[in-house]
Every structure is written in C-alpha cells, then in structure tokens.
Amino acid sequence: MPISAAEPLLAVRAVESGYGKIRVLHGVDLTIAAGEVVALLGPNGAGKTTLLRAVSGLLPVNAGEVHFAGRDITRITPRDAARAGLVHVIEGHRVFTQMSVTDNLLLAGYDLPRAERAVRIEQALSLFPEIAAKRRERGGALSGGQQQMLTVAQGLVRRPRLLMLDEPSAGLSPVLVDRVLNVIGQLRQQGTAVLLVEQLLEKALAAADRVYALVQGHIVLQAKTGESDLPHRLELAYFGHESHAQAAG
Fold first, then answer.
1. How many CA atoms lie within 13 A of 161 on its CB side?
2. d(CA 163, CA 161)
3. Which region holds residue 38: left if phi is over 0, alpha if psi is between -120 and 50, else beta?
4. Nearest-CA neighbor of 66 among 29, 98, 18, 108?
5. All domains of the chain in start order, with CATH
6. pLDDT at 248
7. Which residues are within 8 A (CB) of 246 and not within 5 positions of it... i.e. 6 or more apart?
8. C-alpha–C-alpha distance, residues 129 and 120, integer Å
9. Interatomic CA distance for residues 169 and 199, integer angstroms
10. How would DSSP label each residue in the chain?
C-alpha cells in the first residue's frame, strides 16, 4: 500500500511492551519517514531492544499501536514483518557457523525467486568487500566483526523499506564500525529508512537525521541531529530523567 508524503513510514503510538508481567515500555511514541535514518539512544536497560522487538513482532504489544506503510502491524509476526519490508537485525552474531557465507545469505532470501535472490545477494556483498572475499568460507571462520557484517548483509537481502539495526557496532573495530555506518549512508541514498540503536553517540549522530532518547521506557528527548549542543542535551535528558525518577520513587 503506498503512503502519502505526509504519512510516516513507521508510526509507533503509545506502545507498551515488556517481558511477562514486567513492563519495560511506557507509552512510547516514535515516527520514521521513508528514507530517513533515526538513531534511538539511551543508557543500558532503557528499553531500546525491547522497542525494536515489539515493532518487529518478537514481543507482544500490550497497549498502543504500530503502523507501517499505512498498515496496522501491531499484532504482526516477525516473518510477515520481514515480508512487508520491515527487517530487524538482532543484536549479536546470528549466523549459521557451519554454513558458508553465501549459504547464509541464500537462507535469508529463501522465499525469493532464484534469479532475484542471486541479484540481491550480490548487491548485499558489494557493500561488504571483507565478507564478499570469503563467500565460500564457513560463517564460523569469520571474525566476530565479519559475522556482524554478515548479519547486516542478511537483512539487506530482504531489500527492506525499513532496516532496524540493534547495536551494529558491537564488537567491531573502528574501521569496521565506519564501514557499517557508511553502508547506512548508502541505504539512505537508495531510499531505505533505518532505525539505529547505537552506543557510540558521535557515530550515531553523524549517521542519523533525527534522534530519540529513551530512558526507563520513556522517550525523554527527540531532535534533529543538526541541532546545537545536542550531546549535552542528551546527557541531561539521560541523567535528569533518571534523577527525577529516583526522587519520585
């Protein structure tokens, strides 16, 4: 379904989610426009991973709504989310270590026609020369950083409209961090939206158009990344909200 220019690609409205009886998200609102890169920042335990899991269907949404490309996906399954063009690259190295790099990518596009799948795999590998050179090697033979790059490439085989990346720099050397962030810039140019969860503040702000700060399950700040004194404002948002919460407790 096409979306209007004014309608966001992703709209998260008053979402609450968590694990069993433990509520982690408390009425979260977030939007992403088509082709926009948005960074989701916050201290450890803020609920960033929980939000991505709720959006992609890995966790139930207990209250609120999630809309993607004009469609209500609040109760969607992860498989159907990926088929709709919303791809979630989960934190950590999720590769099949006994399978080759190419076979890992073939599996990511298992439901695509053979010719289309081959084209998409080559496009994904073109963004990561380090793993393209090892396409016949087992996933387990790759370094941790190369495995992380392979997980991103797996997501790209789906040719998503929105790619959600959870800590893509984890375990990467500075050179490979820059490689992944460069890929994000290329995706933006191609019209792919990205929701980026990242601990490296400066890198995230350099890659993104807008930023949300999430603290204790609440959005406490949203801004364009070009706004003045943003790192200081983020720091105040993190710690100011925490201190208020502790005082209220």
1. 18
2. 7
3. beta
4. 29
5. 10-87+162-248 (3.40.50.300)
6. 35
7. none
8. 15
9. 8
10. ----TTS-SEEEEEEEEEETTEEEEEEEEEEE-TT-EEEEE--TTSSHHHHHHHHHTSS-EEEEEEEETTEE-TT--HHHHHHHTEEEE-SS----TTSBHHHHHHHHTTTS-HHHHHHHHHHHHHT-HHHHTTTTSBGGGS-HHHHHHHHHHHHHHT--SEEEEESTTTT--HHHHHHHHHHHHHHHHHT-EEEEE-S-HHHHHHH-SEEEEEETTEEEEEEETTSTTHHHHHHHHHHHHHHHHHHH-
pLDDT digits (tens, 9 = 90+) for 105-134: 999 888 889 999 999 999 999 999 989 999
* Position 11, amino acid: A
pLDDT tens across 22-72, in order? 999 999 999 999 999 999 999 889 999 999 999 999 999 999 999 999 999
CB 15 within 8 A of CB 54: yes
**Whole-prediction pTM:** 0.89
Per this entry, what is the length of the chain? 249
**Residue 96 C-beta-side C-alpha neighbours within 13 Å:** 12
Share of the chain above pLDDT 70, in %: 93
Q: What is the pLDDT of residue 145?
A: 83
For 132-158, letters b (16+ CB in 10 Å) and e give bebeeebbeebbebbbbbbbbbbbbbb
Mapping DSSP onto H, E and C, the string for 176-226 reads HHHHHHHHHHHHHHHCCEEEEECCCHHHHHHHCCEEEEEECCEEEEEEECC
